[in-house]
Each structure stands twice: as C-alpha cells, then as structure tokens.
UniProtKB/TrEMBL annotation:
Cited PANTHER family: FLAGELLAR BIOSYNTHETIC PROTEIN FLIQ (PTHR34040)
The protein's name in its UniProt record: Flagellar biosynthetic protein FliQ
Membrane topology field: Multi-pass membrane protein
This protein's encoding gene: fliQ
Biological process, per Gene Ontology: bacterial-type flagellum assembly; protein secretion
Length: 89
C-alpha cells in the first residue's frame, strides 16, 4: 500500500462525503435564506423561527435522497471490501 494509494482512497472518501451531504446542506441553506428574507420583510426577529423550517427541509431532503445516498455508500464500501486482497499486496 503506497502513500499515493492512501491519499487517493482518502480523496475518494472525502468527495463521497461532500457529495452525500450537499443536498441536505443546500436545502438547509435555501430554507434559512428564505426565512431570513421573511424575517427581514416582516421585521419579526424571533430566533427560534428558523429552526423548524430548516429541520423540516433537511428531513424531507434526507427522505427523498436516502435511496441514492445508500446506493453510493454501498458501492463505495463494496469496492473497498472487494479489493482488500489488492490492498494487502
């Protein structure tokens, strides 16, 4: 196992992590921005108002993207487990 291989494997893991987290982070960002605009327009400065819509948006995003996320994670894990004999050499 060479240092280049370890770095490449870590790079794949980081890219997969970023790719899997993007839908939820994006939805949370959009929900937070929409609530901030709503608060600025109506001048309601309630701090707890932002949490519930963000939680709902992230939960719905997770609900809809969970099959895709599981497929990506299982493919990555299967690839690593299948290639264990190659890693030992």
């Amino acid at each position: 196992m060479t240092p280049e291989f370890v770095v490449a494997l870590a790079k794949q893991a980081i890219i997969l992590t970023i790719m899997l987290s993007m839908p939820m982070l994006g939805l949370g960002l959009i929900a937070g921005l929409a609530i901030s605009v709503f608060q600025a327009v109506t001048q309601i400065q309630e701090m707890t108002l932002t949490f519930v819509p963000k939680i709902i948006a992230v939960f719905l995003g997770l609900l809809f993207t969970a099959p895709w996320m599981m497929e990506k994670m299982m493919a990555f894990t299967t690839n690593i487990i299948t290639n264990i004999p190659m890693y030992i050499r």
